[in-house]
Amino acid sequence: MSALDRRRVTSLDELRALQRAEHAPAALRRRVLERLAAPADGAVAPHSGSPSAGNPLAGNPAAARSALRRSAGWFALGALAAALPFALWQRSEPPPGAEPELTLAAEPDEPASSGFEANAGARASRTGAAASRSSPPPAETAAVARLAAPTLPAARSSIGHPAPDTQPALRRDLPARRMVLPGFAPPARWTMKEGPLPHPIGPNLVTNGDFSHGTALWSVRRWDDFVAQVPSALARYDVVEGALCTTLPSGAFVLGGWPWDDRSLSPNSFALQRGQRYRVSLRAWIKGPLQVALVFKVGHQEPPYDAALVAGVPVTQLQRRFSIAFEPHADDDNAGVGFVANAVADPALPFAASDLCIDDVTLTREARPL
Amino acid sequence: MLLSTLSLLRCALLPGARASSPGLPDVSERVEQIVRQHLDAVWRTARNLGVAERDVEDVVQEVLLVVVRRLDDIDTERERAFVLGATARVAANWRRGRRRRPVELVESIDNVSGAHEVAPGRAVFRGPEQAFERAEKLALLAEALDQMPPPLRVAFTLFELEQLTARETSEELGVPQSAVFSRVRRAWVIFRRCCADADVALREGEPRALTLEEQEP
Fold first, then answer.
1. Contact B203/A39, CB-based, under 8 Å?
2. Rounded-to-5 percentages of helix, strand, coil across chain B
3. Does the reported pTM lie above 0.80?
4. Residue of chain B whose Cα is closest to the Cα of A12
5. How far apart are the first and last CA of chain B?
6. For A54, which of B18, B134, B201 is closest by C-beta distance?
7. pLDDT tens digits, residue range B48-99?
8. What is the ipTM for the molecules in this complex?
9. pLDDT, tens digit, for every residue of A257-267?
10. Which residues are CB-contacts of B14 (< 8 A; sequence separation ≥ 6)?
11. Which residues in chain B are closer than 8 Å to A29, comparing Cβ atoms?
């Protein structure tokens, strides 16, 4: 059989053998081994648990170059996006350096009819320059409050009151998304308090909560099909200026979380102890004309997605840090954090979109207040 | 953005900028062993999964970082499956990231099949005719892989090319074994069609995906 004839017949075994005859470039092998041989630089803590414990880009110029390319691309996109609607969101740009800190606390004495978001809007109007824009119109308030209302709050509120008995029974067969959707929202009883945060105990349990490693371990998916158990398509999201930002067209729902599908990138879960007090904290804000309802959740990562905390976060155009204290009902050895966001549709702005940004997500233990 | 960029640059240029972590277990020995054993497979799998040549090194480094982080979780008997599964996930991340980045149209000359090193003693290509034959066959495989949708491509790569078992493939991909078989079967349809389009006869037994039955432990 001639060489020409041999070329016309092949098999997968032959192709596999041909592939395996190729080796990684010697330069790559050398660089990897050199990196491993430098313990002062290359010792990455297994299960470090802290986003600052090891930067995978350190000493990795190739990865850094790739990240820089991504950053440059997003920088250009961000500049373009900022130039087009500049006149629109310039009015709502927060003053430099302003970052009021808000603590969400359950208030059982609040009237049941006062929704969390309504309270949030009223109080936010006294806190920031964007007050008039951050409070949604009355027609939207109900929808926002319905979505943003905490559906399955922690066993205890941040001030130690037990959760009301009027909470709906935990639907163990429902995925996380349905737990935070409208229809499961009891009357909200949340208010906000401003003030310093108590000192945390121990490290941040959320890896890459400051997005210093880009979007690693985080992803955001579109959730337009409410029948689907799992969101399908990825939403538009990326790390912009150090924060995880996702673009929400009018009326769009997204589900974001840590981790979502990168369960190999460790550490990908943390443990919650029953009776231990925790505090979840994040900075969140929106850029754009549409109001965004944000529901944040801490709970089991897999079915039945038991929730330790579900809370609406009154996000506005003002960059603020929100913190919520909670105590889980039960131990959970595989917990994560997630969020659902909805850009409230505005008939006057059918083609508008808003960016929701979150940053500095932390979950820490803390001592019970005396 | 600027601060973030500068931070990345600082970390890249000043490896010592990151604080060392005293008291950590010495993991370098086992990691080095894994690197030596599986680096080729990681590199090969990344390319088979469509990672652009210019980004293959980034993907390989990222996989090895995953290995370092998850070292305690890696069963010694499942090292290869774990590493290849991590490669598939990192490559999927790369693919998602690529959709958000402009694509560079200039491809590396290294992408020309046959330009990579061949281990001494592993294969000897005696002349240009054989080299051409080899390059053509590898190009056929690459073309077939390119035509497969990502789920099929990953399943075909792990199961057929890297020859993980169906159980390992399903565990690494997080799908049932029946889904693995289904994806590999559909990938075979595409592979056969590509061979037919290229007028290449495919000498095959029964496709592994159709015949292999995983034994319960």
1. no
2. 70, 0, 30
3. no
4. B204
5. 52
6. B18
7. 998 888 888 888 888 888 888 888 888 877 888 999 999 999 999 888 877 6
8. 0.73
9. 876 555 555 56
10. A58
11. 39
